[in-house]
């Protein structure tokens, strides 16, 4: 069905969410219709943030909001749904639109497989009424489902449209760009060149895919890298856990702006522990580029200032390859928790592949290499 029709059928005037590749038609439609408008459309840091923001909207207006997200975000909404929205607490009605990655029987990446299996079960456990939309679902059927949902919403409960792959379409495209010149893949190439045999923990999405292909191109082992293929927002915490337990080994974390925003509290924990051997690199293109390019708020915040306030010993921002190399060489030699923000363009190679090793192989090879460090 058309994204415009789905939006109209919900009857909602306020939408907030975290972008998802399956929901790109919906996301593009919202961007072309509203842009980023606090009265109508807000892209939030994580899905729990969305649910709370939407709850505030309902408290202020009495109207029913929509929260859109990938099914991986269900974990982030469990707490607000169970302890804030639930009818036994504040009975706040809400419509969720959930992209169904890892749908059983449909090929997907390993991080989506189990999440896909439990998608409907988690919604059921949260007592959220669901309706699944696939390619054959008609607008009439969605309207009928919404009529039933309206009865549920009036009782202060929540409902969800679960969207299968290819079920929603949009004829136009939203354009996403910035003025930065250096690409993410170029940035990672520079990091690999300087880090040499130091372990790298990379964030979910295209950053890990590019790191894998760079190793392939350079005929280097993948044992140096832990690819955080799922669990968005947690790569820096994984890196912290490794760095604390391997204090004599330089540990590099390749992070993204959307990932940093999703669980920014991790930076405070990292700063408080302040491992001398951790380098936190934030590739900032101000976009959720892996899932379509919708903007984050990172282009308008001071990541360096935040890092310093959190206790990072050294933090700097660069936007040119020569400055990046200079800073990478400095932190390679220096002791002390460091952050480098790199301003990045939006986009990736069209022929960008995916890791050809399994997640378990990646873990086992990385752990063997880590075990050999500083014996």
Determine the mean pLDDT. Answer: 96
Outline type: elongated
Secondary-structure-derived class? alpha/beta
Helix residue percentage = 40-55%
N- to C-terminal separation? 59 Å
Number of strands: 14
Count of alpha and pi helical runs: 14
Structural Rg: 21 Å
Which consecutive residue ranges, at least 5 long each, have pLDDT under 50?
none
Sheet having the most strands: 6 strands, parallel
Strand % is 15-25%
Tell me about this structure.
It contains 14 helices and 14 strands. It has helices at 3-10, 24-34, 47-61, 74-85, 110-125, 139-154, 184-195, 206-217, 235-245, 257-262, 265-273, 303-310, 321-333, 359-372, and strands spanning 15-17, 41-43, 66-70, 94-99, 129-133, 158-163, 200-202, 225-227, 251-256, 278-284, 287-288, 294-295, 314-318, 338-343. The strands form three sheets. It has a six-stranded parallel sheet with strand order 2-1-3-4-6-5, with helices on both faces. Helix 1 packs parallel to helix 6 (139-154), helix 3 (47-61) packs parallel to helix 4 (74-85) and helix 9 (235-245) runs parallel beside helix 11. The longest helix is centred in the N-terminal third of the chain and has 16 residues, at 110-125. The N and C termini lie far apart (59 Å). The model has no long low-confidence stretch (mean pLDDT 96).
């Amino acid at each position: 069905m058309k994204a415009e029709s789905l939006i109209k059928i919900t009857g909602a005037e306020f939408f907030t969410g975290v972008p998802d590749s399956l929901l790109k038609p919906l996301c593009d439609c919202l961007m072309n219709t509203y842009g980023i408008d606090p009265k109508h459309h807000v892209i939030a840091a994580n899905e729990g943030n969305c649910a709370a923001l939407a709850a505030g909207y309902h408290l202020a207006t009495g109207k029913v909001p929509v929260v859109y997200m990938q099914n991986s975000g269900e974990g982030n909404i469990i707490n607000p749904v169970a302890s804030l929205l639930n009818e036994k607490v504040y009975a706040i009605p809400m419509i969720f639109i959930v992209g169904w990655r890892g749908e059983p029987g449909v090929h997907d990446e390993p991080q989506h497989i189990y999440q896909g299996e439990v998608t409907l079960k988690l919604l059921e456990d949260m007592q959220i009424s669901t309706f699944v939309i696939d390619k054959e679902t008609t607008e009439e059927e969605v309207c009928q489902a919404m009529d039933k949902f309206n009865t549920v919403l009036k009782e202060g409960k929540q409902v969800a449209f679960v969207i299968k792959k290819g079920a929603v379409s949009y004829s136009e495209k939203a354009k996403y760009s910035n003025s930065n010149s250096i690409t993410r893949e170029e940035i990672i190439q520079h990091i690999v060149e300087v880090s040499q045999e130091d372990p790298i923990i990379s964030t979910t999405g295209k950053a890990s895919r590019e790191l894998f292909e760079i190793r392939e191109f350079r005929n280097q082992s993948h044992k140096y890298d832990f690819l955080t293929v799922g669990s968005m927002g947690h790569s820096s915490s994984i890196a912290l856990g490794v760095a604390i337990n391997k204090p004599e080994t330089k540990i590099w974390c390749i992070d993204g702006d959307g990932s940093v925003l999703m669980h920014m509290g991790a930076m405070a924990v990292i700063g408080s522990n302040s491992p001398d051997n951790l380098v936190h690199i934030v590739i900032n293109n101000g976009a959720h580029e892996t899932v379509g390019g919708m903007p984050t708020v990172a282009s308008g915040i001071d990541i360096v200032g935040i890092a310093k306030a959190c206790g990072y010993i050294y933090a700097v921002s660069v936007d040119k390859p020569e400055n990046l190399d200079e800073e990478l060489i400095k932190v390679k030699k220096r002791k002390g928790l460091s952050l480098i923000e790199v301003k990045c363009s939006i986009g990736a190679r069209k022929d960008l592949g995916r890791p050809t090793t399994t997640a378990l192989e990646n873990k086992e090879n990385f752990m063997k290499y880590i075990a050999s460090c500083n014996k």
